[in-house]
């Protein structure tokens, strides 16, 4: 049965919408009736997602836009493009853009630390601030900002000091945003996924993935489009 169009006439912005979790989020938001601004550093990837939305949710006004979330000029230009096209602020923003640059602490370079913090944490800050400002200046309160943390931000992970720090930072930032923006009707939440099979995790050595899969009750990594608790011989519905 088709999902009810709970987000009809809602504009949603998704960073990192060209791949993995961000792409699946775009597809789900479109399925719920939203118009989606698919934002990615790679315009080709964003356009690829856009084609899927046009196929699966035709008749809705989606757009693909290139932006580097770690640069304030790029985020400003992005918000101007959205305002001039939709004449309204996004009411939903999902910060899914993220990168990894794994290295053990003893060898982790300053450049690899900064680049991960810049995309994952500063990028989330810039988009959160820009979207909140656009909602507040529109004079019409209300919205939802969803930031992608990670279980790694809670528990750490070998070779991911930069990534863990960025994701722990996303949690603190989002909790503060939730407190400050509640008076404008803007809800802010962090999602902490475990290991999900995407291009990001394709870079992880298979033996490490197997180790993590062994710790997951389903016996496999999660899927961006969601988990079905079906594994022959273990679960039955
Ligand atoms: P992915 O690599 O498949 O997608 C990330 C997307 O972000 C890519 O399309 C990339 O082009 C885009 N991006 C990178 N830098 C950008 C920038 N500066 N500006 C704009 N876009 C940029 O990754 P994914 O697995 O889908 O991860 C999505 C989010 O979920 C990330 O924040 C990641 O840290 C988080 N996460 C992933 C996992 C996992 O296991 N896959 C687990 C926990 C959290």
UniProtKB/TrEMBL annotation:
<dbReference type="GO" id="GO:0006633">
    <property type="term" value="P:fatty acid biosynthetic process"/>
</dbReference>
<dbReference type="GO" id="GO:0047035">
    <property type="term" value="F:testosterone dehydrogenase (NAD+) activity"/>
</dbReference>
<dbReference type="Pfam" id="PF00106">
    <property type="entry name" value="adh_short"/>
</dbReference>
<dbReference type="InterPro" id="IPR002347">
    <property type="entry name" value="SDR_fam"/>
</dbReference>
<dbReference type="GO" id="GO:0048038">
    <property type="term" value="F:quinone binding"/>
</dbReference>
<dbReference type="GO" id="GO:0005759">
    <property type="term" value="C:mitochondrial matrix"/>
</dbReference>
<dbReference type="GO" id="GO:0004303">
    <property type="term" value="F:estradiol 17-beta-dehydrogenase [NAD(P)+] activity"/>
</dbReference>
<dbReference type="InterPro" id="IPR020904">
    <property type="entry name" value="Sc_DH/Rdtase_CS"/>
</dbReference>
<keyword id="KW-0443">Lipid metabolism</keyword>
<keyword id="KW-0275">Fatty acid biosynthesis</keyword>
<keyword id="KW-0496">Mitochondrion</keyword>
<protein>
    <recommendedName>
        <fullName>(3R)-3-hydroxyacyl-CoA dehydrogenase</fullName>
        <ecNumber>1.1.1.239</ecNumber>
        <ecNumber>1.1.1.62</ecNumber>
        <ecNumber>1.1.1.n12</ecNumber>
    </recommendedName>
</protein>
<comment type="subunit">
    <text>Heterotetramer with CBR4; contains two molecules of HSD17B8 and CBR4.</text>
</comment>
<dbReference type="InterPro" id="IPR036291">
    <property type="entry name" value="NAD(P)-bd_dom_sf"/>
</dbReference>
<keyword id="KW-0520">NAD</keyword>
<keyword id="KW-0444">Lipid biosynthesis</keyword>
<comment type="similarity">
    <text>Belongs to the short-chain dehydrogenases/reductases (SDR) family.</text>
</comment>
<dbReference type="GO" id="GO:0008210">
    <property type="term" value="P:estrogen metabolic process"/>
</dbReference>
<keyword id="KW-0597">Phosphoprotein</keyword>
<feature type="domain" description="Ketoreductase">
    <location>
        <begin position="10"/>
        <end position="194"/>
    </location>
</feature>
<keyword id="KW-0276">Fatty acid metabolism</keyword>
<keyword id="KW-0560">Oxidoreductase</keyword>
<dbReference type="InterPro" id="IPR057326">
    <property type="entry name" value="KR_dom"/>
</dbReference>
<comment type="pathway">
    <text>Lipid metabolism; mitochondrial fatty acid beta-oxidation.</text>
</comment>
<comment type="pathway">
    <text>Lipid metabolism; fatty acid biosynthesis.</text>
</comment>
């Amino acid at each position: 049965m088709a999902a009810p169009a709970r987000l009809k006439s809602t504009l949603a912005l998704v960073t990192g919408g060209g791949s993995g979790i961000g792409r699946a989020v775009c597809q789900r938001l479109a399925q719920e009736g939203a118009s989606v601004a698919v934002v990615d550093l790679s315009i080709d990837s964003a356009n690829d997602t856009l084609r899927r939305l046009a196929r699966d949710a035709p008749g809705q006004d989606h757009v693909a836009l290139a932006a580097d979330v770690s640069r304030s000029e790029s985020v400003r230009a992005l918000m101007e493009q959205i305002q001039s096209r939709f004449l309204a602020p996004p009411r939903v923003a999902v910060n899914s853009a993220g990168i990894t640059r794994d290295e053990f602490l003893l060898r982790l370079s300053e450049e690899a630390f900064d680049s991960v913090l810049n995309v994952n944490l500063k990028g989330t800050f810039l988009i959160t601030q820009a979207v909140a400002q656009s909602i507040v200046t529109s004079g019409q309160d209300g919205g939802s900002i969803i930031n992608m943390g990670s279980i790694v931000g809670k528990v750490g992970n070998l070779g991911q000091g930069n990534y863990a720090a960025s994701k722990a930072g996303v949690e603190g930032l989002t909790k503060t945003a939730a407190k400050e923006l509640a008076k404008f009707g803007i809800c802010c939440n962090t999602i902490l996924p475990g290991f999900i099979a995407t291009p990001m995790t394709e870079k992880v050595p298979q033996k490490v993935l197997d180790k993590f899969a062994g710790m997951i009750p389903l016996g496999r990594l999660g899927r961006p489009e969601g988990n079905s608790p079906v594994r022959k011989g273990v679960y039955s519905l």
